[in-house]
UniProtKB/TrEMBL annotation:
This is Adenylate kinase subfamily. The keyword Iron does not apply. It comes from Arabidopsis suecica. The keyword tRNA processing does not apply. Keywords: Kinase, Nucleotide-binding, Transferase. PANTHER family: NUCLEOTIDE KINASE.
């Protein structure tokens, strides 16, 4: 596809090199003139990294969370459909740190019109990753804006997704913990296909009812649908990249590009593997236990 040739360039092997020499020339040329996109025409990785570093420093949190001041820097990894957004968002309310999902940042950015936006949309809607430089620039801006509002710490969801992104992040901030959510492969596709979003309030639902029979190796897995309240029912939409063909491609890309990121953090002793046993009622308390958060009264109601 012409778009991917213009936007993708091979990842550099060292962070140093990346920092000193990476500018997005192809992005700047494709976003020139009156594209109407709010993207910077030139994205300087050094500047982006400096922003990341600044935004990871301690500052007072406005949240009433009992964990206030602990300044969590956590990352969620996991295949499409595993439920990163759901659990990251719950933990974010519990811990009083923002949940930052790069997929959401990308979708927000792509809702603007313009040539660059439509080229990137083409990538996302085909299940491909967008260029590292683009995503780092989006993330830096988001973290900087958060810092200005007094946010400290974060739970990242969907970043890093390549080893280059992980190296860059590791070079500018200290990630405390990486939670790798796992779910049986049969459930992932069904969960993506069943995902629905309220076009008005943005709430997430799932119409899939997953019931996988148990066998000698694994127990039965039941995940009931998460149905919308009447107010949202008539406003449900699906993501453009939640079609069977595109989900399969996203899974393929995850295995190729993001699985090495798991290894990256494992080697550094930061990876917590967590196999989801089923839906939220079973999984949430177990996840809290795995994170040593189970004794807190707030956890139970989060
Ligand atoms: P998924 O359900 O596949 O985890 P996300 O909502 O996290 O989906 O991301 C949607 C799309 O946004 C991805 O398929 C990819 O095109 C783009 N994207 C999100 N995060 C990144 C990232 N860190 N690097 C590159 N592309 C990303």
């Amino acid at each position: 596809m012409a778009v991917s040739h213009r936007l993708f360039r091979p990842a550099t092997t060292t962070v140093k090199k990346t920092f000193s020499s990476f500018l997005i020339r192809s992005l700047s040329s494709s976003s020139s003139s009156s594209s109407g996109s709010s993207l910077d025409p030139k994205i300087d990785l050094e500047e982006a990294a400096a922003q990341l570093e600044k935004s990871s420093s301690t500052s007072p949190s406005p949240s009433p969370s009992p964990y206030k001041g602990r300044n969590f820097h956590w990352v969620f990894l996991g295949c499409p459909g595993v439920g990163k957004g759901t659990y990251a968002s719950r933990l974010s309310s519990l811990l009083g740190v923002p949940h930052i999902a790069t997929g959401d940042l990308v979708r927000e950015e792509l809702s603007s019109s313009g040539l660059l936006s439509s080229q990137l949309k083409e990538l996302v809607n085909h299940g491909k990753l967008v260029p590292d430089e683009f995503i780092i620039s989006l993330l830096s801006k988001r973290l900087q804006a958060g810092k200005e509002k007094g946010e400290s710490g974060y739970i990242l969801d969907g970043f890093p997704r390549t080893v280059t992104q992980a190296e860059i992040l590791e070079g500018v901030t200290n990630i405390d913990l990486v939670i790798n959510l796992k779910l049986r492969e049969e459930a992932l596709l069904a969960k993506c296909l069943g995902r629905r979003i309220c076009s008005e309030c943005g709430a997430n639902y799932n119409v899939a009812c997953i019931d996988i029979k148990g066998d000698d190796d694994s127990p039965r897995m039941y995940m009931p649908p998460l149905l919308p309240p009447p107010d949202c029912e008539s406003k449900l939409i699906s993501r453009a990249d939640d079609t069977e063909e595109v989900v399969r491609e996203r899974l393929r890309i995850y295995n190729k590009m993001t699985q090495p990121v798991e290894e990256f953090y494992k080697k550094r002793g930061k990876l917590l593997e967590f196999e989801l046993p089923g839906g939220i009622p079973e999984s949430w308390p177990r996840l809290l236990r795995a994170l040593h958060l189970e004794n807190d009264k707030q956890s139970a109601i989060a």
